[in-house]
Amino acid sequence: MKTIQTGIASFGMSGRVFHAPLIHCHPAFNLKTIVERSPKGSKQIYPEVEVVTSFDELIQDSTMDLIIVNTPDTTHFDFCQKALNAGKHVVVEKPFTVTSAEAEKLIHLAKEKGLMISVFQNRRWDSDFLTVQKVIKEQMLGRLVAFESHFDRYRNFIKPNTWKEEQGTGAEIVYNLGTHMIDQAYVLFGMPHSVFAEIGTQRTGGKADDSYNIILGYDEVSVNLKASYLVREEGPRYQLHGTEGSFLKWGMDPQEADLAAGKLPGSDHWGMEDRQLWGKLNTEINGLHVTGRVESLPGNYMMYYESIADTLQNGTELVVKPEQSLDVIKIVEAAIESNKKGKKVLLA
């Protein structure tokens, strides 16, 4: 079976920590080329890789099958469009695009060209989220009535020389952390019928938004997504409440930290959380009151690229479909509109 020749558009954090290691470790892919406009050390880590200095050089390679577009958010549409027009399949970092209109154009173009495009929603394979899905699917809490998710950090300073700290469309936290959290809610509950959001800047001297509280409207369950850069004492990452009980989950999936430290998928205990981070369950099952820890399922970001390989080599259906990521951008747009107008926005 043909190896998928793959190029990465940038060797910044996402390229170095996520895409390059995952592609390098997956036997279906060959990490052929990386774009580095200034030296960032990719050749030292991957001696066989070819280094080019521009995106145009990357897509002009006739042997290239797949392009990873992991450049700043505002470039996603332009770079994806160029890659598709050059006949390349595309994986694009979240957010898909800045606007839903741009996302719709890329989906249409990919279909027209007979090419694949997918958004890197790796946090569908976080250890904690996989465990939350299991708790809900197995109805451990009875009928779920409330779901609250947090993605909090403590960074009380403004990081210099990064576009993510600048004011402007695409830099907002709702495009960054928000697209992960909205995608997870979308996987669990589908498209909401309404969105209410408060988005703001909490840090002194901040230009870009760094906090949000987003309420997604569903008929049967209350869904609340929150994030802030000023949370020094971390609360539960997930809070689930149902007619029979509750599930609380602290901590963060270990894969990003392990990848940043140089550990690779397949190593011992990959994606497994420490026991003290296992979620707390307090519920009633078949008339029996049950309390205790729920062992977290192992996380596995490699499953994203497993899906990409299966689609490109075997024609199977994508797990992260572009139409789903289009819906996520529509929800982001509704959240921004809600914040501006100070009222709930209805979705068709």
TrEMBL record:
<feature type="domain" description="Gfo/Idh/MocA-like oxidoreductase N-terminal">
    <location>
        <begin position="7"/>
        <end position="119"/>
    </location>
</feature>
<protein>
    <submittedName>
        <fullName>Oxidoreductase</fullName>
    </submittedName>
</protein>
<keyword id="KW-0560">Oxidoreductase</keyword>
<dbReference type="InterPro" id="IPR036291">
    <property type="entry name" value="NAD(P)-bd_dom_sf"/>
</dbReference>
<dbReference type="Pfam" id="PF02894">
    <property type="entry name" value="GFO_IDH_MocA_C"/>
</dbReference>
<dbReference type="InterPro" id="IPR000683">
    <property type="entry name" value="Gfo/Idh/MocA-like_OxRdtase_N"/>
</dbReference>
<dbReference type="InterPro" id="IPR051317">
    <property type="entry name" value="Gfo/Idh/MocA_oxidoreduct"/>
</dbReference>
<dbReference type="InterPro" id="IPR004104">
    <property type="entry name" value="Gfo/Idh/MocA-like_OxRdtase_C"/>
</dbReference>
<feature type="domain" description="Gfo/Idh/MocA-like oxidoreductase C-terminal">
    <location>
        <begin position="134"/>
        <end position="345"/>
    </location>
</feature>
<dbReference type="Pfam" id="PF01408">
    <property type="entry name" value="GFO_IDH_MocA"/>
</dbReference>
<comment type="similarity">
    <text>Belongs to the Gfo/Idh/MocA family.</text>
</comment>
